[in-house]
Amino acid sequence: RFPELNLVVRNFARPTDEVSVRQRASDYTKLDDPLSAFGADTFLLFFGFNESFNGPEGVDRFKADYEKVIAEYTKKYPRDDSGAAPRFILISPMAFEPTGDRLLPSGETENANLELYTDATKAVAEKLGLA
């Protein structure tokens, strides 16, 4: 849509990622740190779905861990040579869609938990002044 901007999007996400658990092989950054190598200036963060399985008890830890990872990325991956902080956009988890299959969850409990984590994501974004 905006070819003159030369936008490049790289997806470094894994379906099993949580804000504080990012499973990678022990030598994942042996040759180079891909986030650093590609010089990201904007991070789209999609967390909360996997964490929602911890229920209401996990919300406070989720928020603290989210703030911690944002602080870590801010320090480790400046946007440019001036050391400016990268931009962050926090994206809430999607709702659970019931299938109608009686052998699968109805989604009521799952969506109640997802709402808690959506609210937590919003709270972190508001606290840190992020989109």
SSE topology:
Elements: H1 34-38, E1 42-46, H2 59-76, E2 87-91, H3 108-128
Parallel strand pairs: 1-2
Helix pairs in contact: 2-3
Radius of gyration: 17 Å
Morphology: globular
Kindly state the mean pLDDT as a whole number? 89
Total helix count? 3
Measured by DSSP, the beta-strand proportion falls in 5-15%
Number of strands: 2
Order of helices and strands: HEHEH
* Order of adjacent strands in the largest pleated sheet: 1-2
User: Largest sheet at a glance?
Assistant: 2 strands, parallel
Helical amount: 25-40%
Protein described:
The protein has helices at 34-38, 59-76, 108-128; strands at residues 42-46, 87-91. By secondary structure, the chain is mainly α. Strands 1-2 form a two-stranded parallel ribbon. Strand 1 (42-46), helix 2 (59-76) and strand 2 form a beta-alpha-beta unit. Helix 2 packs across helix 3 (108-128). The protein is globular.
